[in-house]
Amino acid sequence: MTTAQETIVLRGHIIDSLILAKILDLILMMGGSFDIDQVEIGRTREDQSHARIIVRAPTLATLNHILRAIQPHGAVVEREYDCVVQPAPADGVFPDEFYSTTHLPTEVRLNDTWVDVQRVEMDLGIAVDLQHMTARTVPMADVRKGDLIVTGQAGVRVIPMQRPRERDVFAFMESTVSPERPHSHVIADVARRMRLLRDERRAGSGQAKVLLAGGPAIIHAGGRDALTWLIEEGFIHVLFCGNALAAHDMEADLYGTSLGYALTVGHAVPHGHAHHLRTINRIRAIGSIRNAVESGTIKRGIMAACIRAGVHVVMAGTIRDDGPLPGVITDSMQAQAAMREAIPGVGLALLVASTLHAVATGNLLPAAVPTVCVDINASVPTKLADRGSFQAVGLVMDAASFLNELARQLGRSM
Amino acid sequence: MSRLLVCPPDYFDIEYEINPWMRRSNTVDHVSAVRQWHGLMHVLEREVGAVLERMRPVPGLPDLVFTANAGVVVGRRAVVSRFRYPERQREEAYFEDWFRSAGYDVVTLEPEFFFEGAGDLLGFSDCWFGGYRQRSDIRVFPLLSDVFTREIIPLELVDGRFYHLDTCFCPLSGGELLYFPAAFDMDGQEVITERMPEGSRLVVPESEALRFACNAVCVGKHVVLPAGCPETERQLQSRGYRTHSLPLDEFMKSGGSAKCLTLALD
Ligand SMILES: NC(=[NH2+])NCCC[C@H](N)C(=O)O
Fold this sequence. Notes:
The structure holds two protein chains of two kinds. Chain A is an alpha/beta fold. Chain A contains 13 helices and 20 strands. Chain B has one domain: L-arginine/glycine Amidinotransferase, Chain A, CATH 3.75.10.10. A three-stranded mixed sheet of chain B has the order 2-1-15, with helices on one face.
């Protein structure tokens, strides 16, 4: 999807002479597009104007064709520089002026060639390998002394998002979170994408993964069966959650309660809250969730479905956790790294009922991954957008209704 | 008083073809060319009252007569041309020498920026126009505009027969413009109408444009132009100009006429 692009500069009396207009017309007429990066219009008639324009075209050939046509009118391809790299001064420390990434597709110029940065993710550094002419993002904690890190802005370019070909809710990429918005349309678009991704996966693609990051409200609110069904049907391939979601899910299987509340009737069961701790204790005794499922102790539910369907589960701990369950990663940086490992190949992300996991996952996702953020509280999608995940479509509704409707649209009969 | 740089046609000929008017087979009648050139000089000196500076002609440089392409002169400063075609690049050194010996501050441009002097840069006191695409490179105009702190509006020349701005565009001393619109693209035509008030634009008919009616020398109320352009003359006269039409067809064989044979030095 990366299109060919080049930056041109133009100066002179380009406004009154219509030269700027002529160049922009030519670009469009020849099948390109442009972004005016900068224009400075002369204040008086004698003052000259300046423009810096990014020209884009679907192919390199078209781009070159356009450049050839606009050069006689004074468009000059901007002199481009290689990016500037500096060695990391110590393990876990970037050079002072390190370039901090966005989650948009990014290229760096190495020895006069533009190279794609691998694994786009926001707020990281870029490490380059000059020998192999490659570049990849690197988290601050993972940098090693001497790694060559891109500094400054020169020789780095960020490619804005192109509208996806599909004309669905994700094509608009605006985080509208209105509760009045017809939810069923958004959910229908999500369902359609999930069906497509499942087909691609069944056709053998290792990509095309659907990621769900969820909080325990999924269980309390009654979304457990729907999510279990989605996993069993092969619609979900990666699950990010915390200790609570897994514990409540298995508590429900063992005791029929969630944090001591009877799920079916919705009232507190005497000594119910102990069920939660007993569940965690039981799994700790067995050694792992996998063993608990394979030995038949845990029979149904989200975790059981994940084990059986081979879903890649990453459980990240927090300081309020009980236990935790075996498999919960309590070192936040390790948890982040484990989540990061699961991102490549994700083609759709569902962030459901968890501020913490929604923001953490949003931080890791490239802007190109269609993302839905579902929460009963409108501030969650807003927060996600504020943190930079502008591609996320917000859906203000409760987790259970979302999952039930999604499962229904994907063919689950109730 | 108006001073003009000229160069006698001793070696004028058609030795190469770098514009659609030039045909090597179309030989110059040397005697007639000399006579026409002297006829022009006579009118300029005697009737128009211009002062002529004569450059020494150089064997092997047949287009040196077209001094309009020497460069552009403003006050004591002269910017020397950079010709697009190698055939004419050898003239640059001679023009530069002349400017230096005449005491001008000579400004030279980067070699990759083609600029053919007053052939492509014309205008009024406040606003200048630059012809590009055929000979001069549009990128010289911002540089010249830095040098002279003048607005320079580039105009794209779209018809190869009108390959220099002075073949289709002639600012007059009274603020009017004599021009042939079809030599410019739509944007250029729009810019010209935008800049030149209604009534100040004298449009030359195609048949006369093809005789280089626009390649005229205007000094005060005098306009010297090639013969065979009665409609242009009529328009000029109705604006109070005195027209002097002269046979210059030997120079037309090279794609030049009255204006090309002179360079205004002020
Ligand atoms: N200012 C002018 N229009 N000069 C005429 C130049 C003619 C010359 N043979 C050329 O093609 O360059």
